[in-house]
Each structure stands twice: as C-alpha cells, then as structure tokens.
Amino acid sequence: MPAPWQSFRATRWLRTANLVLQAVLLLTFFGGLNYIAENHPRRFDLTRARKFSLSPETLSYVRNLPRPVHAILTLTPESDHPEVRGLLEEYVHATDERPAGRITREHLDVYQNRRRAEELGVDQADIIVLVSGDKRRVVTVAELYTMRNKERVAFRGEQALTAAILDVASPGRQKVYFLTGHGELRLGDTDPVRGLSAVRDQRKVRNLEVEDLDVTAARRIPADASLLVAVAPQSRFSREEQELLRQYLGAEAGRLLLFLAPGPPVASLGLDDLLLDWGVLVQDDVIADEGPENIAENGDLIIRAFARHPITQLLIDYGTMALRLGVARTVIPDPGRSLGGGLNTVTLAATSRTAWGERSFRNGQIPRYDPGIDTRPLPGMDPADRLGVIVASERLAVRDNLPFSVRGGKLVVFGTGDLVANGRVDQGNLAIFLNAVNWTVDRDRQLSIPPRPVEKFQLTLSAADFARLRYTVLLGVPGATLLLGLLVYWTRRS
C-alpha cells in the first residue's frame, strides 16, 4: 500500500497533467480556428433581406475586373448610412483573392483630413469616388436610395455601384461631342448665359471626355462618338449635316441630346424631319405660367412635375429638387406620328396646370392666353393638363432571328438651352443633365439587381406600457434576483 504522501503526489501530478492537456487542447482548438478563419474565411449574412450580400450577377462582374478599383467614401461620423459602409466591405471581400482586379476602400473625413482630400480632389461629404488608373467616377450617396416623403425606403446601392465600378474599370473613356457651327453654347465660354464651362468641368469627376465638333468642317460623325450634344443652335443645319445626324441616330444607333431654345422655328433649323422620325413635336412658342410659385424672382420657369424614368428618378425621389429653365418652349410626343416599329417616346418633365405656350412672343407684349392660338395640352395627352418641356425617345430594333430586341438609338429633346448654361447649373439642372447623359450612353446599366428595403425598427410604447416597463426594470428584476438569492441561502442552511 503506497504511503499517503505518495498518493497525494500522484493525484497532484495527474491534476497538473490534466490542466496542461486541457490548456494545450484549448490553445490548439482556438489556434486552428484562427488559422481557418484567416486562410479560409467564410461570411454569413443572416439578415432577412440579405442586405449585406452581393448578388450573383455582381459577383460574376467584380471577380473579373480587368484592373483594380479604389473606392473613397467621404461619409462624416454623423452620417447614418450603414448600408453603404457594409456594401463597400462586401466588394472588398469579394475581390480579396484577385490582386489584378481588387477593390479597395478608404474612409475619408473631408473636414478633418483636408490635406488628403486636396490630394484626391475631393471637397464634399457623402460621396463615393471610384478611381481606377486615370479614370474617376463620382457617385453621391443620394443616388443609392429610393426616397418617399423625404424618407429612405429602398437601397439600390449595389446596382449603382456595380455599374460605376464596371465603368471606371473598363479601358478608355466614353467621348461626348458638343456640336458647334450654328451659334450653339460653347464649352470654353465662361459667360453665365452663353457658356458651358460648368458642364465641361464635370468631365473629370464623371469619367467623360468632352470635345467640340463642327460637323460642317468634319463632314462626318467620329467613330468614337458615344453621344452628341447640341445646345441652343440658332442657324440652319445644312442638308449634309441633317443627313449625318439622321444616319447617326438611325442606322448607327447613335445618341443625341438636343436643347432647343425658343426663337428659331424647328423648320428653320432643318431638324423637323429628324424630330418627326423620332416622334417628337417641338412647338414654336414660349411657355408662360400664371402661378407665381412657378416663376422665380429672376423670371425663370420652375418645373416640378416629372414622369418616372431613369433620367428623372433622382429628382422624384428627393422631391425638393426642381428645374430652372429660364425661357422654354413646348416639347411633346408627336400626336400625328405613329409610334410603331419599336419607338418609345415619353414626356419626362412638364409644367404646372396654369401654364400655356405663348405663340405671340415675338411681338414683345405681356403674355396673355389667347384661346385657339396659344398652346394648351391636347386632350388625351400624358401628362394631362400640362405642357411637356423634355421628351425622351428610344428605338428598340426588333430582329426576326433573335428572341429579344436590340437596343437602338436614343434622343432626348429639351425645350430650352438655359438648363445647362453656367448661370443655371444648380443641383436639379445638373442632376437631370448628367442622368440624361448616363441614360443615353447606357452608363446606367440595367442590371437585374433589385433594390433592398431599408428596414427601420421602432418600439412604440404607451404611457401605461412605459410605466410597467419602468417598474419591471427598477423593482421587478432586482426583486427577483434578491428572492433567488434568499432561496439559495435558505436551501444551503437547510
């Protein structure tokens, strides 16, 4: 029989060995877990709408990017946009194993880190700057949400950011040509009324290349033209120019933004046949409005009625945005033109119900509505009781040998040239112009990524419910704890 001290020693050794073994097993378990997490990470999105997961469509795109993309998020600490932060994290994790096309992100407080902000050329908060090589694209946080009654109801950030990432990661820039030679507003002009320098200065942040084009001198539309823009032409397009534009829009499926200021009739510009082809009617009038709330102090026409369309979506969502058009003319879908053959024409923006098109504007008299002479909305037109000022027309080419339509040309006609002039490039005007550019050149890729609802949880308590909760927290929980303690004490005493 072993001595007591020997038995005690053996027991102590066994306990020590057991503790050491447990410690080793514990360290091995957590070490292995950490290794697996570090080298084979897996992420699980347990949210109801999978709000922090990228769609399979996005994953297929971003995992094959031709070059890396750096995202700079300029949210301030006070900004409440958890969806944006979480979404950017998902892009980063999705491309971790692809250095050639990796997405990285950077959070920048433009107010606290001014030096870094100046290096990047960023001067405002609540934007995302996407940079890839020498290409840059700015996406505002406002573009990532669908608004209703000034509240965020849906998050469409994945669709917008994926399209922007694909844009900056692709080689080359889309080229926009501004037509000259007919008295149009010029890119290099800084005049507040006749200049487009404010629009020109947007080219870098919007990842666009802009250039003047005199079609008469060039005698052709450049092959690299993604979009043509004509702002307030005053003189006639020659027959050769007219044919070039019609050929570009039709056979070549080109894209054109046409700003037609009041003054010269469309027929005198030589554009009536082109507009007829695309189902757009431009009236020879100047819009007047009896409602004082629809006329700014400087006489600008204020537009607040918009149809839902990719070009106007942002203005609708943020109901506070309006357009300042200066002087404008009526533009509507042509009621005498058959819209068959895949042509889709829609009024994007319209006046108030108190407006009319003044046809006697050249006599210098105070505008006054003359029945039977001046322009009023036609019966059955959409929108009812309003005059259109912006119309978009798109042609879908139906191919017999294909089960789907092939996208054709696009035309957007504005009944004003003032909208993009330097003196009127404010939030609303700039937004609709840039959206029109994005839509015409297909930069708003129609990805099949549905928006996700913005979930809000709110606990609503009545006064009685709040009183019960207060007594439960202040008295009930401590009382139950005390009672349990007394019960345990009594049990041990027994």
Which labels suit this protein?
494 residues, alpha/beta, Glutaredoxin, Rossmann fold, eight-stranded mixed sheet, four-stranded mixed sheet, 31% helix, elongated
Write the layout of secondary structure elements.
Layout: H1 4-39, H2 56-62, E1 69-73, H3 82-94, E2 103-107, H4 114-120, E3 127-132, E4 135-140, E5 145-148, E6 151-155, H5 157-169, E7 174-180, H6 197-200, E8 208-214, H7 215-218, E9 225-231, H8 239-249, E10 255-259, H9 266-269, H10 272-277, E11 280-282, E12 286-289, E13 302-303, E14 305-306, H11 313-317, E15 323-324, E16 331-333, E17 343-350, E18 355-358, E19 388-398, E20 405-414, H12 427-440, E21 452-453, H13 463-493
Parallel strand pairs: 1-2, 7-8, 7-9, 9-10, 10-20
Antiparallel strand pairs: 1-3, 3-4, 5-6, 6-21, 11-16, 12-18, 13-15, 14-17, 17-19, 19-20
| Backbone structural class | alpha/beta
Q: What name does CATH use for the topology of the largest domain?
A: Rossmann fold
Helix content: 25-40%
Could you give the distance between the termini? 40 Å
Q: How many helices in DSSP terms? A: 13
Largest sheet: 8 strands, mixed
Tell me how many strands there are.
21
CATH class assignment of the largest domain: Alpha Beta
Structural shape = elongated
Rg over CA atoms, rounded to whole Å, is: 32 Å
Spatial strand sequence of the major β-sheet: 8-7-9-10-20-19-17-14
Tally of distinct domains: 4
Overall average pLDDT: 81
Please, what is the oligomeric state?
single chain
Q: Which architecture of the largest domain would the CATH scheme give at its second level? A: 3-Layer(aba) Sandwich
Give start-end ranges of low-pLDDT stretches. none
What fraction of residues sit in β-strands?
Answer: 15-25%
